[in-house]
Write a structure and sequence with these properties.
two-stranded antiparallel sheet, 69% helix, Protein MIX23, MIX23
Amino acid sequence: NRFKMAAPSDQQYLPCDDFLKFQDALKKLRLIDDRIIHALNTKIPTQSFRDKVDVPTECKRLYDEMQLSYNQRDRSIRHCVELVNDDVKKLRQQKLDAPDDVDILRSLRKEQTKLRLMQQEMSIEEVVKDRTLKVFYERCRDNYTPPSAPIVM
């Protein structure tokens, strides 16, 4: 079993070979969303204190941080899904070549489950992203408009 990594940046890696490690690493990378929500609530003041903070600059900085994180996580998840999908394809072929080999069947089922779980993480990623963007727009919409602002309901 080869060890595969998805490299979102020089410092952070998602292990693709073990789903629990993958999920754990992803959870750590998602902490930035909690930090950003906290930062939005603490650094972007209410209307009466707005003159004490450069709100457009702070909003832009937080938005850029969010986008970097989203791009890294998206690339990492997609990379792992691709790697595991390739493994599933190889195991399917091996199963066709040796239909009675229970070890191959066991490995195939394990990889198929891992693939489904990783694909579910893509949906979870969308929910996390939407939640953070919603808070971002609530706090920053009057002061900063991102270059490619998605519509948030």
